[in-house]
Amino acid sequence: MYEITVGAAFEAAHFIDGYDGKCARLHGHNWIVEAVVRGKNLDGLGMLVDFKILKAELNRVLDGFDHRYLNELADFATDNPTAENLARKIFERLAASDIFNAATKLHAVKVHESPNSCVEYRADD
User: Fold this and answer.
1) Domain segments of the chain as ranges
2) Range 47-55, long-range pairs (CB < 8 A, 24+ positions)
3) I need a surface site. Which of 20, 39, 82, 95 has the fewest CB within 10 A?
4) Domain 2-122: which topology?
């Protein structure tokens, strides 16, 4: 089994409705996102997925969140824009990309909201 990871970053603001603490107030993060892809078979060039193509797809997904107020996005109309929910939304959007197939799948998305705090959302194994 092969596993590759690419990373990208974006900036966005949010607040956590109903939270008892500082995060209940509007604040921003320099979010770092990692996408992890797994598969057993390499292509004719010896690659699982071209890093350049995977990173472009990740950036395409993140463009929808970059320099945005997350609470105002339709993605978070019913869910707080927590790091957990953000990781799931990014995973769902990225997993729908046509760069994946039955043998090569998005395994996980990791979202860092700070250097010391991150969450990982994984596909059902």
Assistant:
1) 2-122
2) 48/2, 48/4, 48/104, 49/4, 49/99, 49/100, 49/104, 51/4, 51/6, 53/99, 54/4, 54/6, 54/99, 55/6, 55/8
3) 20
4) Tetrahydropterin Synthase; Chain A (3.30.479)
The pLDDT score that the predictor gives to residue 123 is 84
Amino acid occupying residue 95: A
Mean pLDDT of all residues belonging to the chain: 97
**Secondary structure class of 104 (helix, strand, coil):** strand
C-alpha to C-alpha distance for 54 and 38, rounded to whole angstroms = 12
Residue (of 107, 109, 80) closest to 8 by Cα position: 109
- Cα(90)–Cα(88) distance, integer angstroms: 5
Provide the token pair at 30. 């320099």
DSSP 83: H
